[in-house]
Amino acid sequence: MDIYLLLYLLFIVAPLSTFLHEIGHAFAARTVKADHISLSVGSGNLIKTIYLEKLKINIHIIYFLGGLAKSQRKIPYKNLEIAWVTIAGPIINGIAAFLVFYLYTMFPNNYLQLLFLFNCWIAIINILPFKIKGKQTDGYTILQVITQKESVL
Q1: Structural domain tally of the chain?
Q2: Domain Peptidase M50, which positions (predicted)?
């Protein structure tokens, strides 16, 4: 991998794919009538906050490192609603991967291939159920909802 592809991955592909993933969660939260939705991209100091109706978007200085979407409402979510909000992130990455792959078939290049592969990776990794050091994947949350072993949110 040349330096340009690495920089493209780090500063464009990773944050864009993460943002799409978190927007998927936020969109699903809106469909189940969440009262408040917040989306964060990156880590470190907060550099920008954008408000769009019920959606609050926080952008952090290390914008290419992680993301998080949270939603709340007065009436507790039902298990099916939790599962929907949770699965929407990986679904959006899967759709993005499909669309980028289609573009890649028409215009093959390393940049589109990397965008395709990274979105596939986010979708697949997030659907696998595991928990590491207090952080859990979307698949783990869905597994909790299905088995109802403990509170998920």
Answers
A1: 1
A2: 16-107
**Two tokens, residue 152:** 């998920």
Give pLDDT tens digits for 48-69. Answer: 999 998 899 999 998 888 899 9
Q: Could you tell me the residue range of the domain that residue 81 belongs to?
A: 3-34+76-147
Q: What is the pTM of this model?
A: 0.90
Is residue 54 assigned to a domain? no
**Tokens encoding 49:** 């906050």
What DSSP letter does each residue of 90-122 carry, written as one string? HHHHHHHHHHHHHHHHHS--HHHHHHHHHHHHH
3-state secondary structure of 2: coil
Give strand pairing partners of 136: 131
Burial class (CB in 10 A: 0-12, 13-18, 19+), 35: exposed
Dihedral sign computed on CA atoms, order 135, 139, 145, 147: negative
